[in-house]
Known about the structure:
Layout: E1 8-9, H1 12-18, H2 20-27, H3 36-45, E2 54-57, E3 60-70, E4 75-86, E5 104-112, H4 121-137, E6 143-148, E7 153-158, H5 161-180, H6 198-203, H7 212-221
Parallel strand pairs: 1-4, 5-6
Antiparallel strand pairs: 2-3, 3-4, 4-5, 6-7
Amino acid sequence: xxxxxxxxxxxxxxxxxxxxxxxxxxxxxxxxxxxxxxxxxxxxxxxxxxxxxxxxxxxxxxxxxxxxxxxxxxxxxxxxxxxxxxxxxxxxxxxxxxxxxxxxxxxxxxxxxxxxxxxxxxxxxxxxxxxxxxxxxxxxxxxxxxxxxxxxxxxxxxxxxxxxxxxxxxxxxxxxxxxxxxxxxxxxxxxxxxxxxxxxxxxxxxxxxxxxxxxxxxxxxx
Length: 222
């Protein structure tokens, strides 16, 4: 179990799954740059990131920008959208909300600007959200959904044991690297083409630094 002071941003697990170095540049060294992909993603999230927006339609409650946290994984973050559907199974523990009396089951929905990725890097983020909610409310969340802006389509993801184990393993790796303060070395690959930090990663002095402490020491020597 982690403490509140140890919590890392949940959204970072998607960055880490894409590239550990990208995650470290953003979350350890506080580096960031936008490209058209990140800007499109920000525009899409503007439509859903309103925590005061609660709606009820066709028997479904929609909660937006919901804070989530897990001391077991050591994450905190925001879930884009939680859909609450009437709970039919009396054996399951329901999710309760004062504004909408009744027993509900939770389906987390994550908005992505692109399309489905075969590498599964989006899957770990959505599963991590579900695992946070399960810990917070003592409920079971077997599946969630993605809404992809590029294809205007929705896809369901099952949170099986293998995916949950992957989330747990990645969270442990992230905390280990964060505690050490070391940035993994740059490795050129095809996915670098879509990375907003590519120029910073490969064309700046940071590519030669194995850690933040080492990089700061280099600056002092200069």
